[in-house]
Design goal:
Layout (H helix, E strand, L loop, with lengths): L1 E8 L3 H10 L3 E2 L4 E3 L4 E8 L2 E8 L6 H7 L2 E8 L3 H10 L3 E8 L7 E8 L3 E8 L1
Parallel strand pairs: 1-5, 6-9
Antiparallel strand pairs: 1-6, 2-4, 3-4, 4-5, 7-8, 8-9
Length: about 130
Amino acid sequence: MKIHHIGYMVKQIEYAAELFESLGFRMDGAVTCDAGRDAEICVLDSEGYCVELVAPRETSPLYGMMKKYKNTAYHICYRVLSLKGSVEKLEKDGWHMFKEAEDAPTIGRDAKVVFMMSANIGMIELFEMD
């Protein structure tokens, strides 16, 4: 597994993007709508280090987390060769998948992601691209 990005939950995506740009990041594409998470999302890059800004709408399943934690890093995303194999291994290690694989248009047209949770570490995202 290789780290692809750090996910940041933000209230105002444009303002957060400006702040990351002042730190040397650049937008890697446009702000897009992720229908599965009901959120606006964009990716920024700085010399190969990526952050994903996620701004959930009030109807998003992530909105409750936004209300509680405000603007915060909330997941690490790992690129994997096989979602199925990685999920099986992590479940044996005590991780729990809490949503089936879904499309990830912000990462790539053929990208699929899975979110997993550990009571001791928190949330991670795994992604595989065909």
